[in-house]
Amino acid sequence: MTTPSVLIDCDTGIDDAVALIYLAALHREGLIDLRAVTTTAGNVDARQTAINTRYVLDLCGLPDIPVAAGEARPLVVDLVTTPETHGPTGLGYATAPKDVDKRVRSDWQALWERQLGDETRLIVTGPATNLAAYARGHRFPPGVTLMGGAYLYPGNTTPTAEWNSWVDPHAAKEAFAAATSPITVCSLGVTEQMLIDPARLATLVDALGGAPVAAILPRALRFYFEFHEAQGEGYQAQIHDLLTCMIALGRVDYEATATTVDVECDSPLLRGTTVADLRGYWARPANARLVTAADIDGAHEELLRAWATLAP
């Protein structure tokens, strides 16, 4: 079997950072070839998400993986970020050093052009801004996995909308309309089940041993725990993007159903609401594989296994 090539497009806050550490571990094991990381504006602005990404990869011993900041704002609507969820710079109580900014690139579309072959796995864990912008002038990438949406499930931003889809609803709508093969969709109904609490975090940090990246995790996750507790979710954190990466790479068992997805953009009350035509009313071709269940226990085992490989 060939080693999967991976490009991730993220908006590195806290759960994206956990996902990046996992991908770094797989890359260092030789289980994937992490070709590049690009970032969108979402949790914080696009430049800061790129700085956070560069910092996390450096701490994981991967300074040569290229990182580029993508589109600075959503396609149509004004940018809204979420410092109350991920902290003022996106990493909770941790902060990337200022000099990291010098090593962040801006040629994100060129990176995609070079790295997106037919076998590349493109994982999008932030708003779909870069994906939609790229598809306007290029062939739609095959093998896309997207974290976003809430399907017959409460939203986490409005009663019906998930954050990524709400931040740039026009991009999500364009991406599903442009898809030439079904996008694998990991939505809140599944990803909210992937939880880390203080006890599990302590186990994971122990597994990392003296790896430099272990030092920032308690400060980052403590902010995320506090946010979720303030939202009535308990002193724990939902790690959406990590589970999305595992599903994209087939590292965890999951179930999915083929369906047609569309996104509401124009209604002020329903902005970012994602709809899956599970009964075929629209009579349109399937543009999504909607993940409906995942082996959460297996995901935790896989995370611990992978992170242990980063220990010195």
From TrEMBL:
<dbReference type="GO" id="GO:0045437">
    <property type="term" value="F:uridine nucleosidase activity"/>
</dbReference>
<keyword id="KW-0326">Glycosidase</keyword>
<protein>
    <submittedName>
        <fullName>Inosine-uridine preferring nucleoside hydrolase</fullName>
    </submittedName>
</protein>
<dbReference type="InterPro" id="IPR023186">
    <property type="entry name" value="IUNH"/>
</dbReference>
<dbReference type="GO" id="GO:0006152">
    <property type="term" value="P:purine nucleoside catabolic process"/>
</dbReference>
<dbReference type="InterPro" id="IPR015910">
    <property type="entry name" value="I/U_nuclsd_hydro_CS"/>
</dbReference>
<dbReference type="GO" id="GO:0008477">
    <property type="term" value="F:purine nucleosidase activity"/>
</dbReference>
<dbReference type="InterPro" id="IPR001910">
    <property type="entry name" value="Inosine/uridine_hydrolase_dom"/>
</dbReference>
<dbReference type="GO" id="GO:0005829">
    <property type="term" value="C:cytosol"/>
</dbReference>
<dbReference type="InterPro" id="IPR036452">
    <property type="entry name" value="Ribo_hydro-like"/>
</dbReference>
<keyword id="KW-0378">Hydrolase</keyword>
<dbReference type="Pfam" id="PF01156">
    <property type="entry name" value="IU_nuc_hydro"/>
</dbReference>
<feature type="domain" description="Inosine/uridine-preferring nucleoside hydrolase">
    <location>
        <begin position="6"/>
        <end position="298"/>
    </location>
</feature>
